Amino acid sequence: MQPHTVHTVRPSPLGDLLLTGSVSPAGDLTLTALFLPGQRGTPAVRAEDRDDRLFAAAHRQLDAYFAGRLTRFELPLSPAGSPFQRAVWQALDDIPYGTTSTYGELAARLGLPRSELRAVGRALGANPLLLLRPCHRVIGADGSLRGYAGGVEHKRWLLTHEGALQPTLL
């Protein structure tokens, strides 16, 4: 029997988050993606494949994160990607809550030369587990908030929520 894909929708301060996961024949869930509202490439899902119960741990952790009580997610993740992409995504877990890192620092942590910065950026742009694998914590060397698959406005909100950016006055 093959694993099957399920999804859930979770309200958040950013809007409704779409989470997808793969369920093993034994009934174990691993998260495969988290999409922010308005994110390009968000898949169409079938109502009959929704199973909120299987995502209970993810719901609890997301609620705690948005309430400011959780700084690190502890969920089973199974993103689809190349070995290089998965290595970059896993390195994101080492960027502490409330801090940022640059593309260059991330590349150096992975033992990559500066000539690989674009490859690191492409891998970050392909991160299917936004928020859970915190690519929002990676910024430009000049402090700029470079692209984010979930939108730069969401990146700014997340970094402000985590205390890595000061709130801006309009």
From TrEMBL:
<keyword id="KW-0234">DNA repair</keyword>
<dbReference type="InterPro" id="IPR008332">
    <property type="entry name" value="MethylG_MeTrfase_N"/>
</dbReference>
<keyword id="KW-0963">Cytoplasm</keyword>
<keyword id="KW-0808">Transferase</keyword>
<comment type="function">
    <text>Involved in the cellular defense against the biological effects of O6-methylguanine (O6-MeG) and O4-methylthymine (O4-MeT) in DNA. Repairs the methylated nucleobase in DNA by stoichiometrically transferring the methyl group to a cysteine residue in the enzyme. This is a suicide reaction: the enzyme is irreversibly inactivated.</text>
</comment>
<keyword id="KW-0227">DNA damage</keyword>
<dbReference type="Pfam" id="PF01035">
    <property type="entry name" value="DNA_binding_1"/>
</dbReference>
<dbReference type="InterPro" id="IPR023546">
    <property type="entry name" value="MGMT"/>
</dbReference>
<feature type="domain" description="Methylated-DNA-[protein]-cysteine S-methyltransferase DNA binding">
    <location>
        <begin position="83"/>
        <end position="164"/>
    </location>
</feature>
<dbReference type="Pfam" id="PF02870">
    <property type="entry name" value="Methyltransf_1N"/>
</dbReference>
<protein>
    <recommendedName>
        <fullName>Methylated-DNA--protein-cysteine methyltransferase</fullName>
        <ecNumber>2.1.1.63</ecNumber>
    </recommendedName>
</protein>
<keyword id="KW-0489">Methyltransferase</keyword>
<dbReference type="InterPro" id="IPR036631">
    <property type="entry name" value="MGMT_N_sf"/>
</dbReference>
<feature type="active site" description="Nucleophile; methyl group acceptor">
    <location>
        <position position="135"/>
    </location>
</feature>
<dbReference type="InterPro" id="IPR036388">
    <property type="entry name" value="WH-like_DNA-bd_sf"/>
</dbReference>
<comment type="similarity">
    <text>Belongs to the MGMT family.</text>
</comment>
<feature type="domain" description="Methylguanine DNA methyltransferase ribonuclease-like">
    <location>
        <begin position="8"/>
        <end position="79"/>
    </location>
</feature>
<dbReference type="InterPro" id="IPR036217">
    <property type="entry name" value="MethylDNA_cys_MeTrfase_DNAb"/>
</dbReference>
<dbReference type="InterPro" id="IPR014048">
    <property type="entry name" value="MethylDNA_cys_MeTrfase_DNA-bd"/>
</dbReference>
